[in-house]
Every structure is written in C-alpha cells, then in structure tokens.
Write a structure and sequence with these properties.
By secondary structure, the chain is an alpha/beta fold. It is globular, with a radius of gyration of 25 Å. The termini are far apart. Pfam families: Molybdop_Fe4S4 (PF04879), Molybdopterin (PF00384), Molydop_binding (PF01568).
C-alpha cells in the first residue's frame, strides 16, 4: 500500500460524517469520501468513492458513487448520512447505471419538420436553429408566444437559471415546471396557513412522536427509506394511522387503516375535527394564542358529523371517531401527506383540512409534534423556491408584488418594466399550445407525454407548436416529438444542491466528466442567452457561480439561502433553510416559538368545504380510477425503464382490482374512462376497495395511465386531478403491449433491459395482500 497523492485534493469535496453516528473504533475510518484510515488505498483497486445523494425522490439518501481509475462511475455504495443511515431503495441502488448507459444521448439531434427523421448535428447548428426559431416566433407573435417548462429534479442552481432565462433572455411570462404536477397543492395550503411553503418538522421528529398519521402516501414504495422513521416510531409504541384507498405496504402495518373512497379526503378530516371538537379534545389555549379563524372553522366542522362523512367517504363512522381520539389524545402527534391527497381538484382544501386538525389539537412546532409534506421529486422542495414556477421569483417572492419585483430587477440588472407578469400553469400552457397562443417551447427535465393527464390533449398541444426543443440525457417520449434535442449531463456529471422533503439543502458532487459531446444544462442555458443578446446577465461558468447569485437573490426572504455555502454543506451534510447568515445553524423545525411567517405570526385556519371530484360517476362509469408509483420506477420512467434490474422487477403496468369483480390474476382487464381505454393484466387483491381501480403511471401509450386521467385542475394550485376519475372495467381479449423507450437514430433499445417487457403478468405479493401467485 502506498500513500495516495490525490488524497489531499480529494478531501476538499468529502463531507465528514458525524462521529456520533460511526460505530465504536471506526472514527479514523469515517471520511465521507470513503478514504481508508490515514488516507491509504489499495493499489490493485484504484477506485474512488465520491459522496453524493440519490437523484430520485425527496428523501435524498446519501450515497457514494464508485469511480474507477479511468474516472468512470461503475457502482454505488450506501453512505452513513443521517438521512438514510446506510440504506438505499431499489432505485437508489441502480441509479448509477444511467450515467454510462448505452442509451445516453451524446450529440444534439435536429430536424426542421416533424415529418423528417432526427439527425445528429453539431452544437453550433442546433443552437443556431433554436435561436433563429425563438426570434422568428417572438418577432411574429410576441414574446409570450414562446414558453419554457422546467423540472423539479434539476439542481436548485438550474431551476434558478430556468426562471431567470425565461424572464430575462426570452422575456416571456410563460414559464412553469413539472413540480406543478407534484407539490403545489401542499405549497398553496402551507402558504395560506403558515405563510411559508415547506414541511414543519424534520424526519427525525417522527422517531419522537406518539401518533403518526400518514395520508395519501405509499411510503413503502414511493419513499422506501423513509420507512425506517415510521418503524422507529412504531418501535417506541407510536400509533400509526394510514389514510389511503389501497392497503399499501405501510397501511398493512398500521393500527388504523382508513380505506376511504378516492376524492373524499377533506370530508374525512373535517369530520375527524368535528369529533375532536365535540369530545372536548381541542387545545383551546394553543388556538387562542396562535391561530385565527377558529370560530368560522368550528361552524363548518359542525356540518360534518361522522354519519355524514361515513356516507361520503365509504368508511365506518366509528373509524372516524377512533382516528380523532387517537390523534388528539396523543401527547405528541404528527401528520405527513403526499400526492394521494394533493392530486385533486380540491387538493389545497385537502391539505388545509390536515393542517386544521393539527392546529386544533396543538400538534404544531414541537419535537415529535407537527406537520409535513413529502416531496416526490429529488428537488421537489428546492425546485419551486427560486423562480421557475409561473407566479414566483427567487426566494419564493411573488411576481405580483411590486416590492418583490423591484428587488429581483435590481439583482438581475434590468428595469422593472422589462420583467414580465405571472404566467400560467403547466397544463394551462398545453391548452394554450392547442389554441396556438404559445407557438414555441423549450422543455428541460420533464416528460409531459407520460406525466401530464389526458394524453390526447397533450399530444395535440405539442403537435401544434411550430418549434419545440428539449433538454435530456435520454430520448424521452416528449423529446422524440421535438425539433431539437440537447444532450445534457446526468446528476453525477455536475455539482449542485437540492432541498429534500425536510427543506434540508444537500450537496451533490460531480463524480465523472460527461461523455464527449454532452454539455451541462447551465452551459446550454447560458449559451442560448448569449445568442439572444442577454449574455451579460448569464456569465456563469459553473454551478458554484450560479449558487452565489442565488444566495444573494434569496437573502432576506422566507426562503433564505444566504447563509448556506458549498463549504458548509460539505462540512455538515445539509442545512435546513431559512438560513440567513453563515453562522446560522439553519432551521430544521419551524414554529418552535409559536409564530408563523404571516405578519401577525399566527396560523391562519381556513374553512374547507368538500365537493365531489370533477369527473362525475354514472351508470357507464361507476368506479374510481386512481394512479400512483411503484417501488421500481420513478415519475415518467424515462430513467428507470432503461435499468435492467428495475425493468425486470416491474416490467409493465397493471390494473389492481378487487376479487369481487370476477377476474383471475393476469387476465386482460380493460379500463375505460371518458378519455379512452387501455388493457392491462389484472392484479387481483383484497388490498383495494371494490369500487376503485389502481394503475401505476410510469409508462407511455398504449399503456399510459395518463391517457385515461382527466385534465381537471385545482382552481388555486392548478394541479391536475390524477387521483380520481370515473371509470369502468371490462373483460378484454389481449393485453396492450409495453413499448420500448425511444432511442437516438442508429441505436436500438438496450436489449438487456427490455427482455422482460413482454411478460404479460402483473407483479407478485409485494404489491398487495391477497395477490395471486404468478404461476
């Protein structure tokens, strides 16, 4: 063994672990870079471990990427970061495989018409064509005829650039992002109630609670590593309540599982509040000192006795009483929720009804007592904080607020008259594309052909555009419909920050150089800005330079990142915002002083009125279709549908239905909505309500759940109503075939990852109790 001459330089990027987390006797072996004691390494190995975080969900597990002597990522190891404590889920274990995957795009693709085939071109030709089309469309139809759609899996530095590029270089009001499909109902509710948009408590508080309520979150599959916190609470004796139409893996371990009818969440939670009030279980002192709107809310809750809510929700009235007593009587109780209650035309009301319950019982702002929202994408929290959302500027500022506009214009060096007004939401932009109000579009880190509802409308909207460019490292279904595709880096080929579901900002480190011909999103955005005449506002050679401006742009706001630096993140492993100064420890738990971020410092309780879902039931469509994730895949599946172990684990979607419908496991079942029909293999299980069908949404047409869902929106958050639409099921002859992912010209779908797509049967037991054997 010999001393490693690179060790001193390498240590700059390694995050020292908290020694209290290391096993006894291993403190000399605790460098987060995985360097052995005294920085020696084995000559015959020649590998480096680069500390970073998973690219997928909002848990943001710590991991090491294994890098060989040639500088290529070839494996992964879990890291003893205090978020995940050495645990990774199936997606995290396989994430590294996308970095050097044979499907990677390595040259720009271009065509001047969708009737042509793609051809590989130089960066110069692709950029020139894109800029000429932007100028042509805007000079002909106006600046707002060109739009930009970003993504919540981008580093925060890049989300900042997306918003700035749209408003300063494109000078268009039309910018939004795919977090519109994820967290905006929770964001809207949080801002209304608390004046701040983030979870109130860190994950670690779950370990301290006496009662844990999880609503609309399939934690075991969507956020698997978060399960350790749930189990830790259970080990302490905490009561677990799960509210979900399906008996998910986490629901099977619950003391109380409320299998309510999809689309009835706010009626349920308001009825729970009714019982809390009637039985004298409210915390009147807390309400008097810290809340407004209590009398109005009490009056509304009186209209939702358990008998009424039981009829609406399809659950026993006694269960509503049971939940109320368990939650309100607990010394410390917490509520966490996710997409299951947010993906609704009443998503904001659903979230508010949970906040109302936590507030009325005084379970806010204490260790083990509080409220949290679980972000779905890796940067679902950070992705909406710094300006790519249509109504927000960096730091969570409102684009409609004159003072906020003035502040940002001063930082950006533009006149306030140059800053466009608020734009529209992602789905509304598609409708505008249909109407040819938006004629050109750039998409970054999104795949609407799979992820947006009502595929027919989405396809019509994109087809109506005169020009469309997409950034991606794989050719997604949406990119395959574009005129230009820019090949960009994966998360392992650049550095930057993300904010996880706790609002803890963590640092991702670069593990390898990108393949020849690939550029960072930052470089492409800045180069487009330069060619559009705004280069002086986009002089950012790297992520660090963008982050320096982001810190300044967020200073003094609710979403204050000013005190967060790359160096501090490397030293600490993560800092929760707001963090206003470099000697500030961050804010892992909100409201400890009893004050919110409203000017009066109080929680603003909101009256909630339940209304039926937007897609009405009738004799032709008597059942509810609901959608969600499965453990092996992520969002539109553009990444995970190419990774062999994940495809083998879950090669295709299925229709989860109750045994009462008479299907056998694996038989073709046609799911019919007012948007169309598709045929899936039946997964027959007692783990779902008889009136409900579940289909996971990670696949494209003709097996796309989102070809069936409705494009109705919450009027406040503009989130689509993915979680409930009217449907029926029928026997069919043949199951619809799963298509292979798109690939660049001259390539074929990587066969090792695609062989199992032809498997006609649904997954086995992990998906639900009572599932038949595949044999």
């Amino acid at each position: 063994m010999t001393a490693d001459p690179r060790a001193a330089a390498d240590r700059r990027t390694f995050i020292p672990l908290d020694p209290s987390l290391a096993p006894p006797g291993t403190r000399a072996f605790r460098d987060a870079g995985g360097i052995p004691a005294d920085r020696w390494h084995a000559d015959q190995n020649g590998e480096t471990l680069v500390p970073t975080h998973c690219c997928f969900c909002g848990v943001q597990c710590g991991m090491y990427l294994r890098v060989d002597h040639g500088g290529k990522v070839f494996g992964v190891e879990p890291r003893n970061h205090d978020i995940n404590r050495m645990r990774l889920c199936p997606k995290g274990i396989n994430a590294y495989q996308q970095v050097n995957h044979p499907d990677r795009l390595t040259a720009p693709l271009m065509r001047r018409s969708r009737d042509e085939e793609f051809r590989e071109v130089s960066w110069e030709e692709a950029l020139d064509f894109t800029v000429s089309e932007i100028k042509r469309i805007q000079q002909t139809y106006g600046n707002d005829a060109f739009g930009l759609l970003g993504g919540a899996s981008l580093f925060s530095e890049k989300t900042y650039l997306v918003g700035k590029f749209a408003r300063v270089a494109l000078k268009s009001r039309h910018v939004d992002y795919n977090g519109r499909l994820c967290m905006v109902s929770a964001a809207g509710a949080n801002k209304l109630a608390f004046g701040i948009d983030r979870a109130g408590n860190p994950f670690s508080d779950i370990l301290l609670t006496d009662c844990l309520l999880i609503a609309g979150s399939n934690v075991g599959e969507c956020f698997p590593v978060m399960t350790q916190y749930v189990w830790g609470a259970r080990d302490r004796g905490a009561t677990l309540i799960v509210v979900d139409p399906r008996e998910t893996a986490i629901a099977r371990t619950a003391d109380i599982h409320v299998a309510l009818r999809p689309g009835t969440d706010s009626a349920f939670f308001t009825s729970v509040l009714h019982v809390v009030i009637e039985e004298g279980l409210t915390d009147e002192n807390f309400l008097a000192d810290h809340a407004t709107g209590w009398e109005e809310l009490k009056a509304k809750a009186a209209e939702y006795p358990p008998s009424r809510a039981a009829a609406i929700c399809g659950v026993p009235a006694e269960q509503i009483v049971q939940v109320a007593r368990a939650f309100a009587r607990a010394p410390k109780a917490m509520a966490w929720h996710a997409r299951g209650i947010e993906h609704h035309s009443q998503g904001v009301e659903n979230c508010l009804s949970v906040i109302n319950l936590c507030t009325a019982t005084g379970h806010i702002g204490r260790p083990g007592a509080g409220y949290g929202t679980i972000t779905g994408q890796g940067n679902g929290q950070g992705g909406r904080e710094h300006g790519q959302k249509s109504d927000l500027l960096p730091g969570g500022r409102s684009i409609m607020n004159e003072e906020h506009r003035r502040q940002i214009c001063e930082i950006w060096g533009i006149e306030e008259s140059e800053l466009p007004p608020a734009g529209t939401s992602m789905m509304e932009m598609v409708w505008q594309m249909q109407r040819r109000e938006i004629r050109g579009l750039i998409g970054i880190c999104n795949n609407p052909f799979v992820s947006l509802p009502n595929y027919r409308v989405v396809k019509e909207g994109y087809d109506a555009t005169e020009f469309h460019a997409q950034f991606d490292f794989f050719l997604s279904e949406t990119a395959a419909n574009a005129h230009v595709v820019f090949p960009v880096t994966t998360w392992a080929e650049d550095e930057g920050v993300m904010a996880n579901a706790e609002a803890r900002v963590v640092k991702h480190n670069k593990a390898q150089d990108p393949p020849p011909g690939v550029r960072t999103d930052t470089w492409v955005i800045c180069e487009l800005a330069r060619r559009l005449g705004a280069g002086d506002k986009f002089h950012f050679p790297d992520s660090r330079s963008v982050f320096d401006e982001l810190r300044i742009a967020s200073a003094g706001t609710v979403n204050d990142y000013y005190g967060i630096t790359y160096e501090r993140l490397e030293e600490t492993g993560g800092i929760a915002w707001p963090c206003p100064a470099t000697d500030h420890p961050g804010t892992p738990r909100l409201f400890e002083d009893g004050k919110t971020y409203h000017p009066d410092g109080r929680i603003h309780l909101q009256v909630v009125e339940w209304h039926p879902p937007m897609d009405p039931y009738d004799d032709e469509h008597p059942m509810s279709l609901t959608t969600g994730r499965t453990v092996a895949h992520f969002l539109s599946g553009n990444q995970t549908r190419r990774l062999g172990a994940l495809v083998e684990q879950t090669p295709r979607p299925w229709a989860e239905i109750h045994p009462s419908h008479g299907f056998r496991n694996g038989e073709p079942v046609r799911v019919v909505t007012r948007r169309g029909s598709e045929v899936f293999p039946a997964l027959v299980t007692e783990a779902i309500r008889p009136d409900t069908v579940f289909v996971p949404y990670h696949w494209p047409v003709p097996t796309a759940a989102n070809a069936l869902t409705i494009d109705a929106l919450d009027p406040r958050s503009k989130i689509p109503e993915y979680k409930v639409c009217a449907c029926r099921i029928e026997h069919a002859e043949r199951i619809d075939e799963v298509p292979a992912p798109p690939v660049a010209p001259g390539h074929v779908a990587y066969p090792e990852t695609q062989v199992s797509r032809t498997d006609p049967l649904p997954p086995t037991a992990p998906q639900g109790r009572g599932t038949s054997e595949r044999s």
